[in-house]
Design a protein that fits this description.
The chain has 134 residues and is mainly alpha-helical. The protein has one domain. The radius of gyration is 15 Å and the shape is globular. The N and C termini lie close together (12 Å). Keywords: Membrane, Transmembrane, Transmembrane helix. This is Methylamine utilization protein MauE.
């Protein structure tokens, strides 16, 4: 019973974090796209659009998938992949201030990449791993 309550609690945490961030990204898509261009500068203009669309779709899938027990393993793996993508971009841009971020995506695309957002992403990865284990 305690394990089931822990699973529900962790799923709710993930849904709240991802839904809050996704709402900000979808409310005004242009700043999100510009933030992607800042973080992934070496990927080219056409690839920035693909990256932004892929990440938004992935985050929507994670939110929706948290409600279905049958696919929770797949969703947790996708969540880990999602966070590793953002973590990789943060590590590559460590100690840089991004010109085009609006600071609305603190979890994934902060205005200034410091240790705290990196640790926050690592924490989310651990939540996904914990959901896989229990």
């Amino acid at each position: 019973m305690l394990i089931i309550l822990l699973q529900i609690f962790l799923r709710i945490i993930i849904v709240i974090i991802f839904a809050k961030n996704l709402r900000g990204k979808l409310r005004d898509i242009v700043p999100y796209y510009l933030a992607i261009t800042d973080y992934y500068i070496n990927f080219g203009e056409k690839n920035h659009k693909k990256i932004a669309l892929f990440l938004l779709t992935l985050e929507m899938s994670i939110i929706l998938g948290m409600f279905f027990n049958e696919i929770i393993t797949l969703i947790c793996i996708l969540g880990i992949v999602n966070q590793i993508i953002y973590l990789y971009s943060m590590i590559n841009n460590y100690n840089k201030k991004m010109a085009n971020t609006c600071s609305c995506y603190i979890v994934n695309l902060p205005h200034e990449v410091s240790l705290l957002p990196i640790l926050y992403n690592i924490g989310i990865i651990y939540i996904f791993i914990l959901l896989l284990i229990i």
